[in-house]
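Folding Task

Wanted — backbone structure
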Amino acid sequence: MRPVATVHGVALVGLEARPVRVEAVCTAGLPTTRLIGLPDTAVREAADRVRTGAIRSGATWPGDKLVVNLAPADLPKVGTGFDLPIAIAVLAASGQVPVEALAEVYAVGEVGLDGSVRAVPGVLPAAAGARHHGARTLFVPEAAGAEAALVEGLRVVPVADLAELTAVLREEAPARRCLPTPAVEEASGDDLRDVRGQAVARRAIELAAAGGHHVLLSGPPGCGKTMLARRLHGLLPKLDVDEALEVAAVRSLAGERRPDEPLSLTPPLREPHHTVSGAGLIGGGTGIPRPGELALAHRGLLLLDELLETPRWVLDALRQPLERGEVIITRSRATVRYPASVVLVAATNPCPCGHLGSPTRPCTCRPDRVERYRSRLSGPLLDRLDVQVELRPVDRDRLVGPADGEDTATVAARVAAARAVAADRWGPGVLVRDAGPEQVRATVRPAALRALATAIDQLGLSVRGFDRCLRVARTSADLAGVDAVDVEHVEEAVAYRLPEPVAVA
């Protein structure tokens, strides 16, 4: 009886990597190839790609009935990354490579008709999952070798084609080694010193960067909303290696990361257009949902410019992810989770023409049109935006005079110091935004709590609004180097609520 050859592949359900046993056996019967185990169209087509590629590489395709099983059978198999493990299993089942060489071997990659092995999206999370599930060796396309090598504790073997793969498994050729590309920090050309005036808004983005708070910037066109939002990105501290790997894994899964791209320690910046769909922003698509802009901005900045030009239902989809720090997408075939710990910066005009409240140009919008425009930002979502600022046009003297603000490096140092204080208080990586309510309250003086309660009554804010103001006050105290939150910190936090709310819903 001919042996069953087994090698492992990886099925990605979101960022979760699940091992797939690829089993192949040759049995008596007509020379056919049957692929079973809930494959999608791309996986079913693997039989033709692998057969043609193997023959072009000098291998012999079995002349008997060939059955390839992808187990577990109830897990959907998606994409061309199963081509390579199928090819290995078939070569072993037909006796062209030793079955013993497949112990603790995983593989991921697409096979071309010429026998070449090509890169596929998601190699980095697949490599991390393979290591987690006990893989000793991972065969990957040559182009994706450096990306897979970012995962430590795993022997990554890059192969250019099936001929090289066969030679390595037969021990007729040495397995090549690949080294990860060194991590880099990308320099930004944007400097906070470029912003003229807008001292209140500058302080607002400093608070946001230090505590991870979400920001709403409202004002007429050209007052500096987008400029300020982009400068906030330069205030975020660089990522450590583990955080950078997490960010790179999401980009790899989305197919946005080049295999030879170095590991970036710079937090991501995503700026989706205001016509973005719900699936594009949150994630989705056919089959297993793919990550959207929110997940791609994980550990970085999500900038939503022209906020109120975005449909209300798309914006409301942000409510739960902003609260939980992750995106959960449930479909009939799978439920996936993507990390989504972001700093959200939203910029909007106060009305469709943009000049409502402007001292220089009158607003031409009808009241009902202004109301419809503002109603696109619902009250519950507005409540989740901790820092809300109304910007005014910069006066002429500030525009023509010398720069009067601090540069990015100075403010970024203050932000890093405040984050370090929060990490010492609550644990590594914990921002003020993410700390427990009672943990934050324990650092607030009784007088400051009473002052905040009085202000909340006057503003009519919700319980969530009370908690958010308390967190902003905690960040203000950290930036000042003060252990306890006092009345002046509460007063600053309360001031960052729009006197006239943008939303009427």
Q: What stands out?
A: The longest strand covers residues 16-27.
